[in-house]
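Sequence only, no structure available. Ideas?
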Amino acid sequence: MIGQLETNEIEKVLSQQLLGRIGCRLGDVIYIVPVSYVYDGRYVYVRSKDGMKVDMMRKNPEICFEVESFQDLGNWKTVIAWGSFEELSDEEERKAALQKLYRRHLPIVSSETTHLSPHWPFEPADLNSIEGVVFRVELTKKTGRFEKLEAVPGTRGNRLRKVSGTRGRTQVKLDPRAEEG
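Reply:
I predicted one. Tokens follow.
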């Protein structure tokens, strides 16, 4: 079944993920790039190197943000949100954003882009010594979709091969190679 996420489900996806994508535009150029982030219920916070995306957002702060929770091709949730880029230059605001990024729960194996300083996982004495551009995006509009495989009554879950929605209809195909329940 494919459907719309409720507001609380959208907030949960945004809060639980660590990797999202920012889409920005300047003139005829559209640029989509993955970012490591933290969400506090209002803003997405990011620390990044100076580069194309930051240059574009400084000139056109209106962006699109995408994040997903993905189990497999038949079980996923995705959120699309819109908002405005705001670079955090004030020392206290920048420090507060970096604290939020430091305090998120990261997996043991994680990208160096999530490691904010050479001291990671330990917070340096002066958070503002961390290099890079720190910014936030206030998410002003959010929408979400999901797909969820549904169990077929009288069968084991492993017999279900595919569920797809087209024009409000759901098609279920059973795997003939699977054992009977």
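The first helix runs from residue 7 to 16.
Hope that gets you unstuck.
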